[in-house]
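Before we proceed, please read the two lines closing this message. Tell me what the token row says about the fold.
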Amino acid sequence: MKHPFERVVTDHGATVLRVCRAVLGPVDADDAWSETFLAALRAYPDLPADANVEAWLVTIAHRKSVDVVRRAARHAVPVADLPDRAVVGVSRDLDLWAALAALPDKQRRSVAYHHLGGLPYEEVAALLGGTAAAARRASADGVAALRRTYPRFADEGRA
């Protein structure tokens, strides 16, 4: 039995947002989240009742996130005044994003899709191209790198 779409958003909205944030960062994630659920709403009536809704949504979120990146690359962003120097964020979320952003693309996306999106490695491999073993290795390497570089993990390792 298919649930009402409102319940789908309630049940899986946080997972989709985590995936969008991991792929895009905190600024553009809201747009990708909205676009994911707009596209999902249009396609939901044709989705088979036995489909894995969470995996389906993460796939859509992946594609919408890629669309946001492509759109941003094509358009210049006008600003009134250029800053004298870069502004560095101090919150823990920005530290995590910086650590994720420093990972190679395949590792970052593997970590996002498996650990944040909850997809099995077979589905991660289908999104990224390659085998489930390669997706598992990329995810493990990404998590290992985060443990070395993300301050919370580094602090726990010393304690």
In short: Residues 21 and 29 are 5 Å apart (CA to CA).
